[in-house]
Write a structure and sequence with these properties.
single chain, alpha/beta, 5-stranded parallel sheet, 16 strands
Length: about 240
């Protein structure tokens, strides 16, 4: 169901501001790929007939036809997350096996929780993708990730991460206060992190650049930890520090 390891989405809402919010949230979530946006069910049907869509963000209260009624017309519908300003439609939404029901105005954190539900429903084709990390790539000090571990999604501030270590099929994320272990490759995790803040220094280690206390040609010191710099990553390490 995934296309290039991304969940392909269609957003449908007759209110432009609401549609812009969903579009912004999708753009900020690396695992999602926006196929199109539209403001009515007729255009949505046309898009669904032309291309494969994995996930539908669908407003309920729309002119011509309710989003819930529109879903009933589809013979092979994608996963759906309903968006609406009216709680009264929640029951109808869940009767249609909706993944989630987002009440406007929608916060980004609530949006991410809904997307995590989609991922837990086996949209992913591999066990690694089931544990994929969702990232808010905002450059603010409050930027964060949701890491899937221990059967739940754990929120971690990017600014709290010291480094990440590979443990074969798992990763160990070391923060200022705790360590989280999740089933995921370090390479896929690295791809979700902001490149200007994190750096691969070894096949088994990715570090937070602003947490470096000292270094030489072979080691990086971060807090109480000594992290090796392999020869194959030394040039990129030196280049990143010059920036």
């Amino acid at each position: 169901m995934l296309h290039s390891n991304k969940i392909v989405c269609l957003a449908v809402d007759d209110e432009p501001p609401a549609l812009q919010v969903i579009e912004k949230y999708i753009a900020a979530t690396p695992v999602l790929q926006l196929a199109a946006t539209c403001n009515n069910a007729v255009d949505a049907l046309s898009i669904l007939q032309q291309q494969k869509v994995d996930l539908l963000f669908l407003d309920i209260q729309m002119p011509q036809i309710l989003g819930t009624d529109f879903m009933r017309t589809l013979s092979n519908p994608p996963k759906v997350i309903f968006t609406t300003a009216f709680r009264k439609y929640a029951v109808d939404g869940f009767e249609l096996d909706a993944v989630d029901y987002l009440l406007k105005p929608i916060s980004f954190e609530r949006f991410l929780k809904a997307v995590n539900k989609v991922m837990r429903l086996n949209i992913s084709t591999t066990s690694e993708n089931k544990e994929i990390t969702i990232v808010d790539k905002d450059n603010s000090a409050d930027a964060f990730i949701y890491l899937r571990a221990d059967r739940k999604s754990i929120k971690i501030l990017l600014n709290d991460i010291l480094f990440i270590e590979s443990l074969k099929d798992y990763i160990k994320v070391i923060t200022k206060e705790k360590t989280i272990i999740a089933k995921q490759s370090i390479s896929s995790f690295e791809e979700t992190l902001p490149a200007d803040k994190f750096l691969r220094v070894h096949r088994s280690f990715v570090i937070a650049i602003n947490k470096i206390d000292s270094f030489n040609q072979e080691l990086v010191q971060i807090s109480k930890y000594e992290i090796p710099i392999s020869r194959s990553y030394r040039h990129e390490f030196e280049k990143a520090l010059k920036k």
